[in-house]
């Protein structure tokens, strides 16, 4: 009887130790890569540095959006980061978002979206 009780307590104690997987989605960007961005980089050069953007708008190719989300399932906390790059033709002109933007790319004027 005592063995069954200990076995039952052991099983109940393990049921509270459920591990939940963390989920990462989107573009995982490092600040050191964003620091490499400069005005006048071509779209191909930007893809070489950052990879392809998650959001692809077939109608407006002058704005690229890189999205990243991380869900810590055990803490119930979600982190979302966004980087927007603006182009004039094939050349990078400015950037905005949740990362530290290089000074030369900070938006000094409004760009129509």
Helices, strands, pairings?
Elements: H1 2-15, E1 23-26, H2 31-34, H3 43-50, E2 63-72, E3 77-88, E4 91-97
Antiparallel strand pairs: 1-2, 2-3, 3-4
Give the key terms:
alpha+beta; 23% helix; 113 residues; 4-stranded antiparallel beta sheet; Beta-lactamase Inhibitory Protein, Chain:B, domain 1; 4 strands; disordered C terminus
Describe what this molecule looks like in 3D.
Part of the Bam complex. Keywords: Cell outer membrane, Lipoprotein, Membrane, Palmitate, Signal. It is found in: Cell outer membrane. Belongs to the BamE family. The longest helix has 14 residues, at 2-15. This protein has a single domain (20-105), classed as Beta-lactamase Inhibitory Protein, Chain:B, domain 1. It has three helices and four strands, in the order αβααβββ. With 113 residues, it is an alpha+beta fold. It has helices spanning 2-15, 31-34, 43-50, and strands spanning 23-26, 63-72, 77-88, 91-97. It has a four-stranded antiparallel beta sheet with strand order 1-2-3-4, with no helix packed on it.
């Amino acid at each position: 009887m005592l063995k069954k009780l200990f076995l039952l307590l052991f099983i109940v104690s393990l049921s509270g130790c459920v591990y939940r997987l963390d989920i990462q989605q989107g573009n995982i960007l490092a600040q050191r890569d964003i620091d490499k961005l400069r005005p006048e980089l071509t779209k191909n050069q930007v893809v070489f540095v950052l990879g392809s953007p998650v959001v692809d708008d077939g109608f407006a190719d002058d704005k690229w959006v890189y999205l990243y989300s991380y869900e810590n399932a055990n803490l119930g906390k979600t982190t979302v980061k966004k980087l927007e790059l603006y182009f004039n033709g094939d050349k990078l002109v400015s950037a905005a978002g949740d990362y530290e933007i290089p000074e030369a790319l900070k938006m000094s004027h409004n760009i129509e979206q």
